[in-house]
Amino acid sequence: LGIPAEPLFRSRSRIAIVVSTAVGYMLSLVAGIVDLMPVTLVLMPFIGFAYGMALDSLRDYRINAGKLGYDEFSDRKIHNIQYSGYFLGVSVGAVIAGICFERFGLLVVNIISGAIMILACIGIIYFMRDNNPPKEIYLPVNKWLELVSDKYTGRFLMSTFFTMGILFTFLLGFVPNYLETVGISLATSSFYYLVAAFFALFVGFIIKERLAYALTSRMRVIISSLAALLGLILFALMPTAKILVVTVALVGLGLGIHDYYY
User: Taking the C-alpha atoms of 45, 47, 50 and 56 in order, what is their torsion angle to the nearest 10 degrees?
Assistant: First the structure.
C-alpha cells in the first residue's frame, strides 16, 4: 500500500482501541437490558477485558514519557498519578453508580459508564496521537512457566497478587453483601470505599514520602500484611458496621503502601 510501517501500526492500534471499547459498551448494554445477575456475571469478564484494552494503552504513554527524560516524568511518578486516578474514579464512581442503580436500574448505570469510557477512549486517541508504540520483546510461554516455577517468583506472587486478590475480594465481594444484610443502602455503603481509597492513596502516600529511607520492599510487604491482618482480625472479633470502617481503612492502607513491585 505504500504506507510507512509506523503510521500504519498507530492507525491499527487506534482502531483496536475504538473497536474494543465499542464491543465492551455493547456487551454492557446487553447486560443492562437483560438485567439478570447470571448474565451480568458471565459478560463481566469480557466487558472488563474490552474496556481494559483502552486503559492498557496508557502504559505506552508511561514508557515514552520515561524515555524523554523530563523532570517529574519518571515511570514511577506517572504510574502513581494514573493509579491514583483509577482508585479515586472507582470510589467516586461507586457513589454515583449506587445512586443511579437504586433509582433507575442497571441499564442506566451501564449507559453512563459506557459513554464515559467512549469519551475516555477519544481522549486517549487525541492526547496520544504522536505517541510512538513501544517495541518490546514478548516472553514465550515456556520461559514464562520457568519464571513462575522459580521459588523467588512464588514468594513474590504470594506476597503481592495473591494477597491483593484476597483483600480486593473482601472489599468488592464481602463488604457490599454484609452492608446489605445490616440494612445499609448501596449509596451509603460507598462511604466505606471512600475511606479505603483515602487511606490507600493519601495516608499511604504520606507514609511512603516521610519514611522513604526506611521503607524497603520487604518492609512494605510486612506493613501491608500486618495492616490487613489487623483489620480483618478486628472485624472478626467485633463484626459491626462501625468496626468495618476501621477494617477497610487498614485494608486500604495495606493496599496503598505495598506498591506491588520489587
Answer: -70
Q: Cα–Cα distance between 203 and 197 in angstroms, integer?
A: 9
Neighbours of 42 (CB within 10 A): 12
* Cβ atoms of 225 and 163 closer than 8 Å: yes
CA–CA distance, 97 with 105 (Å, rounded to integer): 10
Cα atoms in the 13 Å half-sphere on the side-chain side of 119: 6
User: What confidence tens digit (pLDDT) does each residue in 216-238 have?
Assistant: 777 887 888 888 889 889 988 98
- Residue range 43-99, pLDDT digits in tens: 888 888 888 877 777 666 666 666 666 566 666 666 667 666 776 777 677 778 878
Sequence-ordered list of residues with C-beta below 8 angstroms from that of 86, at least 6 positions apart, any chain: 55
> Which pLDDT score is estimated for 262?
39
Contacts of 25 (CB under 8 A, 6+ apart): 114, 115, 117, 118
